[in-house]
Amino acid sequence: MTKNEICLCGLAAVRARFERDAASVQKLFFDLETGRKIGPLCKGLAAARKIYRCVEPAELEKISGTIHHGGIVAVVAAPKLRAPTKAEVTEWAAQRTPLLILDRIGNAHNLGAIARTAAFFGVPRLVLSSDPTAAQPGASAFRVAEGGLEAVELFRVPDLAEFCRGLAPHYLVAGAAAHGRALTPAQLRARAGALPIALVLGNEERGLGTTVAAACAQLVHIPGRGRVESLNVSAAAAVLIWELLARGK
């Protein structure tokens, strides 16, 4: 496997990739039990003259670099992400399409879980930070997403604060915050009016960056009982995606 390739592990993730873009699968490896479930996938690869092979679990672990391969590994090209254009943003807003933005989410498992939630609720696009500490869509994220990363369109921007400021005429940009003067989801929905909402989620430990928080028109928090300080970011994402981006659909 080259540096421009990644492994997709687990039957849900691999099937989702075949359904979306079968041509992108370069090689497929699986154990005996999983092989009984993927006849059509192997038939397609055979027709395309691509490699597919039944191997021992130890070999799957070696290929994928993890014990969590789920009995199947597809080798695909690593995704190439770009920043959205101004014209695209204008069109999304005109269609009242919600937008989900991640500010330096550092754990690939959280990235995958958030993408899975976004896909479940029909949020079509996810914008990532290009900060070197931010998790990117690799093998772990795809595995945890259970096919969710195939259902959302991914973008990456070099300056997240600047991008959020540029959304202002078209979106109500709302940053998730655990502290400070923040609105509840219900208050934010009322404040949004006719504008679609762009929800910004911050780093697991540090929250929103200072410049990103300043670029948000509003901050929003999830009211709790005070027994613990906050939710894990993927759990918070599920609550806020439902409350702000999906509830009115």
Topology:
Blueprint: E1 5-9, H1 11-21, E2 25-30, H2 32-35, H3 39-47, E3 51-54, H4 57-64, E4 72-77, H5 86-94, E5 99-102, H6 108-120, E6 125-129, H7 139-145, H8 148-151, E7 153-157, H9 160-167, E8 172-176, H10 185-192, E9 197-201, H11 210-215, E10 218-220, H12 233-246
Parallel strand pairs: 2-3, 5-6, 5-9, 6-7, 8-9, 8-10
Antiparallel strand pairs: 1-4, 2-4
Helix pairs in contact: 6-7, 6-12
Description:
By secondary structure, this protein is α/β, with parallel strands linked by helices. It has 2 domains: 73 residues, Ribosomal protein L30/S12 (60s Ribosomal Protein L30, Chain: A), CATH 3.30.1330; 161 residues, Alpha/beta knot. It is built from 12 helices and 10 strands. The protein has a 6-stranded parallel beta sheet with strand order 7-6-5-9-8-10, sandwiched between helices. Strands 1-4-2-3 form a 4-stranded mixed beta sheet, sandwiched between helices. Helix 10 links the parallel strand 8 and strand 9. Helix 6 packs parallel to helix 7. The longest helix is centred in the last third of the chain and has 14 residues. It is elongated and about 55 Å long. The termini are far apart. The mean pLDDT is 95.
